[in-house]
Amino acid sequence: MKLKMKKFVTLAAAFTMVLSITACGSGNNGANSAQTSAPTESASNSGGTNTGSVSSQITPEDGAALTVWESKEERAFTEQIAKEFTQKYNVPVKIEEVAPADQVTKLSQDGPSGLAADVIVIPHDNLGKAVAASLVLPNDLFAEETKKNNTEAAITGASFEGELYGYPRSAETYALYYNKSLVKEAPKSFDDVLAFSKTFTDKSKNKYGIMWEVGNLYFNYMFIASTGGYVFGDSGTNKDDIGLNSDQAIEGLKAFVKMKEALPIKSGDINPDIKRSLFNSGDVAMDINGPWELAGYKQALGDKLGLAPLPTVDGKTSISFSGIKIYGVNAYSQYPNAAKLYAEFATSKDAQLLLNKLIGSIPTNKEALEDPQVKNDPYVSAFAEQAKNSQPMPSIPEMGNVWSPANAALPEIWDKNADPKAAMDKAVQQIKDLNNGAAAQ
């Protein structure tokens, strides 16, 4: 089992290079509605080699108009980038709000009928599902530029089975936000977090020393991986080797159970909106969260906002889940050249610096990482430090079968005092049944 973990960590090692400095609607334009079959790869390739500035050699199709899907939280970035793209290429861009986690599923439903966006945002763990269903075109025209300009981990996240599909735009993991007026120094261990919480938490006043989404595997992976657990073996590619119920994982989940004293509420009573409100008001002293909250928290707390790597678990360095957000080009798009130009344009150095400025995202572009805007930012640096101790989420299609069983097991443990081993055994069996039954959904 330790060998399996070592293999899994090899992919994590790539992610440490992310930052060596230091983490709804449907519809398209009307012309696309007649498109019913995915074009061949050659249909969008204008020929030539990927040398020099490829973007200067590619022109959008006549009459091209694009639709892109974007999250509500990051729409401000896309509005600015879309405006700049239209100014440069004279291609109008329509923005529709769709949560990134839902975009591949929505593309599978709306792509064949021509109702989906031309460019979508894909969390890298959803890429395998998209590729398996032939939903996205390879990143062929800009492959050399993409590989040259971005970190190794970003390219790993944007690739599936050795082929580059995505256009990396940001790296993500989570860390410990804290209110400096309440917590003078970031705690080094979860034992320290618990000790502080005993002096601060008052359920009757809705005040808590720390809060995080205790029912979500993404945020609780630290209690599984830090002690040696994992999702899939063989660098996250072996669906038949599941380590969520291993002895090492259960050891870490015992530390998870101990934290109930710091946060004595039901998992269902915690959601991003509630947590955000309580942290901004000073009723939650610490929050485990990602860079997508950075801009809002800085505005609310100002100089009182602190950010640090995750506390240790049972004396071991906390290992978080990490991800790469990438753009994918819809295989059914009538305007693949325009779509690829947009994906490249929106992931350039300048674009990633804009995304960092507006949202707080961590760039993957190597030049952007060295820019003073990023390099001298204490918050981004803290995420970067945690990124060094993170593991990329597996990107095989079977990862889609993990979330629901695991996210049912964690509340059983937290809310109902279920035995961690029994709860995770049940979850693993459900994952195996899904993996060996119908195709991953």
TrEMBL record:
Bias (Low complexity) occurs at 42-56
The record's section on CDD domains has:
PBP2_Maltose_binding_like
Q: Name one Pfam family in it.
A: SBP_bac_8
Localization, per the record, is: Cell membrane
In the bilayer, the protein is annotated as: Lipid-anchor
Q: Where is the composition biased (Polar residues)?
A: 28-41
> One GO biological process from the UniProt record?
maltodextrin transmembrane transport
Domain of life where this protein originates? Bacteria
Question: Which PROSITE patterns did the record assign?
Answer: PROKAR_LIPOPROTEIN (PS51257)
Leader peptide range in chain numbering: 1-25
Query: What is the species of this protein?
Result: Paenibacillus sabinae T27
Kindly list the organism's lineage. Answer: Bacteria, Bacillati, Bacillota, Bacilli, Bacillales
UniProt keyword annotations, A-Z: Cell membrane, Lipoprotein, Membrane, Signal, Sugar transport, Transport
State the family it belongs to: Belongs to the bacterial solute-binding protein 1 family.
Q: Which Gene3D superfamilies match?
A: Periplasmic binding protein-like II (3.40.190.10)
What's the protein name? Answer: Maltodextrin-binding protein
In terms of SUPFAM superfamilies, this protein maps to: Periplasmic binding protein-like II (SSF53850)
MF terms (GO), sorted A to Z: carbohydrate transmembrane transporter activity; maltose binding
